[in-house]
Amino acid sequence: MWSVREALEKFIQSLELTQKQRDEVSRQHIMVRECLRQRLKSKTDFLSGSYSRHTAIRPLHDIDIFVVLGDAGSTALTADAALKQVRQALHEEWPNKSLPILQQHSVHIGFSDSGIEFDVVPALEVPGQDVYLIPERQTGQWLRTNPRLHQARSTEANELAGKKLKPLLKAVKHWNRHHESSPLGSFHLEVMSYSAFPSPPEDYLVGLEKLFSHLSQQVRSACPDPARLGPNVDGRMGSGQRGTSQQILASAARQVRLAKEESSSDPARAHGRLRELFGEFYRQRGP
Predict the structure, then answer these.
(1) What's this model's pTM, rounded to 2 decimal places?
(2) Would you identify the CATH topology of the domain 4-16+150-281?
(3) 161, 201 contact by CB (below 8 A)
(4) Which residues contact 12 (CB under 8 A, 6 or more apart)?
(5) Could you give the count of Cα atoms lying within 13 Å of 255 in the half-sphere of its Cβ?
(6) CB of 283 within 8 A of CB of 7?
(7) Quick check: helix, strand or coil at residue 45?
């Protein structure tokens, strides 16, 4: 049987994409981006979202592709038209697939052979500023953002934590996915985590308790866009959802604290607590 600390570390490692998966993702996102460049004559494009920030976990869900169609001010393109332009380009390239889905800020397309799905975000660049505009379908407005600033903030926070933040955050994201009733969004969890570690935690077990505890406090307050450009990350979270989130995060922090206290005296019970949090991905012994 592994020690509790060994099992936790191996669990976190199991959330990483395999090299084969990374190779397939790379092949497919290059294919999609080349299609968009040819059909939209876009200014530039790049990966955004959790995959680009290295905080995505297995099983991999959507990968975000940010496509800059042109400069703001030099086009009369509406938010709705931008989304439909991207949908049309994808549909023309893959006419035998289901029509790509219009979402709030992006267009969704999936590939059944690999199981990989993409959210394509059309954008306009604001000349002379480090700012992009992305569509909001519900309101028809353009929102200010910059995913590259999100990526920089993520890297900075991870460095302060001795590169332990992203691995710990992946564990929390898996916990959140495992608890389907959780109202917490993945990006919301990630942004709240940026202030968790002004210095590196002693190890993953200590860090996990601290991260859950930190998140349980942070979720009580508004969560600004880390780029300080767009609306709050948790703008659509109601007071009831905030209270529920605080309770389940505090409960998770307590479970990890108890597992840490029992890790030497009663390792079987400590393993059981972590398995309750993370499900079958958490194992206390090797195959």
Answers:
(1) 0.93
(2) Poly(a)-polymerase, middle domain (1.10.1410)
(3) yes
(4) 167, 168, 170, 171, 204
(5) 17
(6) yes
(7) strand
pLDDT by residue (tens digit) across 200-231? Answer: 999 999 999 999 999 999 999 999 999 999 99
Is the torsion defined by CA of 229, 225, 59, 245 positive or negative? negative
Structure tokens at 150: 């999100």
- CATH number for the region 19-145 comes to 3.30.460.90
Q: CA neighbours within 13 Å on the CB side: how many for 282?
A: 23
**Nearest-CA neighbor of 237 among 180, 185, 173?**
185
User: Could you give the CA distance from residue 37 to residue 43 in angstroms, rounded to a whole number?
Assistant: 8
- Residue 8's nearest CA partner among 261, 178, 259, 231 is 259
Q: Are 110 and 57 in contact (CB under 8 A)?
A: no
- Pair of tokens at residue 226: 């880390």
Coil vs helix vs strand at 280:
helix
Place of tokens 């035998």: 96
| Tokens found for residue 73 | 């001010």
Distances (CA, A) of 42 to 4, 31, 39, 67, 170: 50, 15, 8, 7, 33
In the chain, domain spans: 4-16+150-281, 19-145
* Pairing of the two strands 44-48 and 101-102: unpaired
Q: How many CB atoms lie within 10 A of CB 271?
A: 23
Q: What is the DSSP-derived secondary structure letter of residue 196?
A: S
DSSP-derived 3-state class of residue 169: helix
What does the pLDDT read at residue 237?
92
User: Which of these, 114, 70, 65, lies nearest to 90 by C-alpha position?
Assistant: 65
Mean pLDDT, range 71-86, rounded to an integer: 93
> Between the CA of residue 6 and those of 32, 174, 196, 278, 285, what are the distances in Å?
39, 18, 23, 15, 9
